[in-house]
Design goal:
heterodimer, A: alpha/beta, nine-stranded mixed sheet, 11 strands, B: alpha+beta, Uridine Diphospho-n-acetylenolpyruvylglucosamine Reductase, domain 2, Uridine Diphospho-n-acetylenolpyruvylglucosamine Reductase, domain 3, Alpha-Beta Plaits, 18 strands, binds flavin-adenine dinucleotide
């Protein structure tokens, strides 16, 4: 079985700089980390690999510095990695990102694609499902557990606020894995050594079958950023000290804010 | 020595100096003030005073000294040896309201604080200035006064030392109400006996700390931890001193066996990665540039795998990863507590090379006493935390077994050139063992020091000695 995992490099802190002209995130390759949600996607792949001997290949689209997260994936358990990087992809919105990735994934070939649920920067949770639509394969999001039923079917458990589903899904397909679905392993020094010689190839637009540059990057993005601004901060907490009856005061506040019913 | 109890006239005086809101008696005193974190020592104070300012403290002490009223100083009460419990009654002086950060001096790299400032507030205050106060005891809600009074250790002692190494100056009030400054904003000091260093670690028995001048350094650019699994306890313990001696000093080297992670995991409801191994070292490295840290980590990892038989070395480099592993490590004490009905602990410190032998002794002791005895350690410092768990034992059996186990543990520690406490102090709970395992002349000297500072013995009576 061939598993492809999609990961993204995101800013390590929540204070990100945005280009005021274009509304595009300024990514300089400094102070970055792997999107934390993608750790659960990778772990899901590695657990399947341990059970079925699957081959796990990891990809990312991003600037050349994004190769760092691919190295990290090799240190954790991936068998190979490819970077999709081309200035012509810059400014991609969700649709253009998913389109470029789908072109790449189709060419590499897969039985199963595993994405994170969402990222901590773009935060849309749309890339996974959109890739599946472009590739015309079934997809399931919010996945918690995966197991192989037979060599053509996955048994999947998903959880949302209200209910839990257990589904069977035919391969090839795509899943997005929920936060806390598992305990992601740490990068291993022994794997760092043993994967040192694995070359991470960089693909550009020229490696994709659709070579029409206007389908990618800012030009391929229907989303127009009107303006971009930090959300207004909620007022900070209130401090009540030296109260006669602190329990009652707290109760009244909780009722006032509708956390509790007063009756 | 017989002490006076607090009477109406005393209370009147206290109210005049501290204000009515800050003087509590009887049932208005929260039960918390009758014990510390471990709850093995219990006694309610006659009166609880919330410290407001130095002037009030000076008056209180002059008066209490005159009247023979015991005064027990208390920080956050997170101690583990009953040190802040007023075993002779009298007054408990709660220092937590004196919690102002007074001055960050960027030229001298010092921080002046009141004693009730919490450790977590110090870290926050200096780190946003790119500075660093290195001592890192596990309990971040402890007060700096409590840390100084117990000479608290913590997770970074291997490289940076303990609280004492970071206290440059103290302002104290003596038992008779005199205030004085000891040490100061000076980096070194050979001016006579170091009274400041006597106060550090004196557990409220010599003076009340009302202000401290702490040493700061520029913050390291980055710290990375490494989780190193080993196939056995011995392998991990034998590796620890070698790792420390290898080229770059780690800031911390913690030791744990699999059972500790399991306690923590069930307590926190969260797993840590790679919890399937018998024993672990958890080491941290820092440096002033990011590149330097990466290089150190590479070198230490290769050494651990190639020369120390570590099964592998796992990288803990992001905040998320640090949180998942270090939160679990930080929860050990509470997780063990939650696993049983009652615990008691032993915090011996030994030469690092003695640890493997000592811990196999503990294993045997657990079998011979039929007690559950989980443990972990700041092995980088040779400091172990060993817990006796009561489980379903009745009171009499529990008392009997803990006495046997403690006697044996301290006895064996002494044989291994170890000392009674590495960082939690002697307080009330460990007095017997300090006495038993200290040279008689040394005890006499300690008693003479106590008498010189506090001739009437009103400050935290019955503690340490
Ligand atoms: C107008 C506009 C301009 C933008 N310009 C830029 C820009 O110049 N540069 C830029 O980096 N971003 C830019 N963005 C943000 C970018 O569109 C999104 O971050 C990106 O499409 C991924 O979406 P997301 O982060 O919401 O991912 P989500 O949909 O939340 O991610 C879900 C999962 O999809 C996978 N995934 C997501 N992104 C990638 C990726 N790049 N490679 C591999 N797998 C991935 C991961 O598995 C991830 O867990 C722009 C957005 C807009 C609206
Ligand atoms: C989960 C947990 C983890 C811990 N981890 C560590 C650790 O890693 N390292 C370590 O060393 N300890 C550790 N401890 C023990 C404890 O936190 C320390 O002993 C701490 O220094 C106590 O501070 P406190 O403010 O709670 O003092 P208290 O417990 O209130 O008092 C301790 C002693 O200090 C004296 N004192 C307090 N303030 C003053 C003052 N202003 N002037 C004079 N005397 C004073 C008291 O009289 C008493 O003798 C841990 C405890 C817990 C519960």
């Amino acid at each position: 079985m061939k598993i492809l995992t999609c990961i993204k490099q995101v800013p390590a802190s929540s204070n990100v700089d945005v280009d005021p002209e274009t509304g595009v995130l300024i990514r300089d390759g400094k102070n970055v980390k792997m999107n934390p949600y993608d750790l659960y996607a990778l772990e899901t792949a590695y657990l399947l690999k341990a059970r079925s001997g699957a081959h796990v290949h990891t990809v990312t689209m991003g600037p050349p510095s994004a190769a760092d997260v691919l190295r990290e994936a090799l240190m954790m358990g991936s068998d190979g990695a490819t970077l999709l990087s081309d200035p012509r992809f810059a400014g991609a919105d969700v649709l253009a990102t998913a389109y470029a990735l789908s072109q790449m994934l189709r060419r590499i070939g897969f039985d199963l694609i595993i994405c994170g649920k969402q990222t901590t920067d773009g935060d849309t949770a749309q890339v996974g499902p959109e890739i599946a639509e472009f590739l015309d394969v079934p997809h399931v999001s919010y996945v918690r557990d995966v197991d192989l039923r037979d060599d053509k079917t996955l048994r999947i458990r998903t959880v949302d606020d209200r209910h839990e589903d257990v589904l069977d899904i035919k391969l090839p397909c795509l899943i997005t894995v929920d936060k806390d679905a598992n305990t992601p392993r740490l990068p291993s020094f022994k794997r760092k050594r043993s994967t040192r010689d694995i070359r991470i190839e960089t693909w550009t637009l020229d490696d994709l079958s659709d070579k029409e540059a206007t389908h990618y990057g800012l030009r391929g993005s229907p989303t127009q950023v009107e303006s971009i601004f930090p959300p207004e901060r909620q007022a900070t907490g209130r401090i009540h000290s030296n109260l006669e009856n602190p329990g009652k005061t707290l109760f009244d506040i909780l009722v006032e804010q509708k956390w509790l019913r007063g009756d | 020595m017989t002490f006076s109890t607090v009477n109406r006239d005393d209370l009147k005086a206290f109210i005049e100096w501290f204000g009515g809101n800050n003087v509590l008696t009887g049932d208005t005193i929260d039960e918390e003030y009758a014990h510390d974190e471990l709850k093995t020592v219990h006694r309610r104070p006659d009166a609880l005073l919330k410290a407001t300012d130095e002037a009030a403290i000076r008056r209180l002490l002059a008066y209490a000294n005159e009247r023979g009223i015991p005064v027990t100083v208390r920080g956050s009460g997170t101690g583990l040896v009953g040190a802040c419990v007023p075993v002779e009654g009298g007054v408990v002086l709660d220092m937590t309201p004196m919690n102002k950060i007074l001055d960050l001096d960027k030229d001298n790299l010092t921080l002046d604080v009141e004693p009730g400032v919490l450790l977590l507030d110090i870290a926050e205050h200096v780190e946003k200035e790119g500075l660093f106060y290195a001592p890192d005891p596990g309990e971040k809600t402890a007060t700096i006064g409590g840390n100084i009074a117990t000479n608290a250790g913590g997770m970074r002692a291997v490289k940076y030392g303990v609280t004492r190494d970071w206290v440059l100056g103290l302002r104290v009030v003596l038992a008779d109400g005199t205030a004085m400054d000891l040490g100061g904003k000076v980096v070194k000091n050979s001016s006579g006996y170091s009274l400041k260093d006597l106060i550090v670690g004196s557990e409220g028995t010599l003076a009340v700390i009302v202000k401290a001048t702490l040493k700061l350094i520029p913050a390291p650019a980055k710290a990375i931890s490494l989780l190193m699994p080993f196939s056995s306890r011995e392998a991990a313990l034998v590796a620890a001193p070698k790792l420390i001696a290898h080229t770059t000093l780690p800031t911390a080297v913690e030791f744990m066996e699999q059972d500790m992670w399991k306690y923590s995991e069930s307590f926190l409801g969260k797993n840590i990665p790679h919890d399937e191994h018998a024993a672990y070292l958890l080491a941290t490295y820092d440096a002033t540039t990011e590149g330097a840290v990466d290089e150190i980590v590479e070198c230490a990892s290769a050494f651990a795998v190639d020369k120390l038989d570590a099964h592998d070395v796992y990288l803990i480099d992001t905040d998320d990863r640090k949180q998942s592993v270090w939160n679990a490590r930080g929860a050990f004490l509470e997780a063990v507590k939650a696993s049983t009905t009652e615990i008691d602990e032993c915090d011996v410190v030994l030469p690092r090379s003695q640890l493997p032998g000592y811990l196999s002794f503990i294993q045997d002791l657990s079998e011979s006493t039929d007690l559950r005895i989980p443990y972990f350690g700041h092995v980088g410092d040779g400091n172990l935390h060993i817990y006796l768990c009561r489980d379903d034992l009745d009171e009499a059996t529990w008392k009997e077994k803990t006495a046997i186990a403690f006697d044996a543990m301290y006895e064996e520690a002494a044989k291994c050139q170890g000392l009674v406490s590495g960082e939690h102090g002697i307080g009330y709970a460990k007095k017997t063992y300090l006495r038993r395992h200290s040279d008689a002349r040394q005890l006499e000297l300690m008693e003479a020091v106590k008498t010189a500072f506090d001739p009437k013995g009103i400050l935290n009576p019955k503690k340490i000695l």
